[in-house]
Amino acid sequence: MGSSRHIDFYFDFISPYAYVAWAEVQRLATQQGCTLHAYPVLFAALLNAHGTKGPAEVPAKRVYVFKDAFRKAHLAGLPPLTPPPGHPFNPLHALRAVTTLTNAEEQASLITALYRATWAGGGGVETLERVRDVANEAGLAGEEIATRAAGQAAKDAVRANTERALENGAFGVPTLIHDGELFWGVDSLPHLAERIAGKDPLPEDLVARWASLPASAVRPGST
Length: 223
What we know:
Oligomer: single chain
CATH architecture: 3-Layer(aba) Sandwich
Shape: globular
Number of strands: 4
Radius of gyration: 18 Å
Strand content: 5-15%
Largest sheet: 4 strands, mixed
CATH class: Alpha Beta
Strand order of the largest sheet: 2-1-3-4
Distance between the termini: 38 Å
Number of helices: 10
């Protein structure tokens, strides 16, 4: 275990937890000497594929998730969490914009800027014009990025990333994959760090036994 020095990070700007995880995983990758590859995916498509709802679609979760994410952002040393103008919102323009950059440093700068515009009082990223302005403010070629983000190649890239995420077992964001092992949520980052260090305590035989356990009850209405 822990032989690979690479982390895949699947994210959607719609998730405040992925916002916090983005800051944390960059630090983790640097500390552990890992390369980091970020894949923008459509969270809604992951939910649809698994027949589940997002936290914002469950009234009992909606306020709790914001409070929890606010506390996590504070612990991570991020600016006070501020919700975008609307939520859920359409993140596609922002997701597609990220795929237009091949330089890792520029891509990371754009992701950070778009996340701050979404969750740190920046007015949101729902329109292509706003994505362009955020890119410009980050010192990037905003007009060029916006033009490419509106093209078919960027649309196809987000779709391909989402399909790749599903093939790798993703069911939500943030999803992180290291050495073939999937970690979900910002709370999983300490476990990811142990995996990278070759100290994952999880016995493989226990996983196999859990996966093969028969169901002794079925929730009404689930079939």
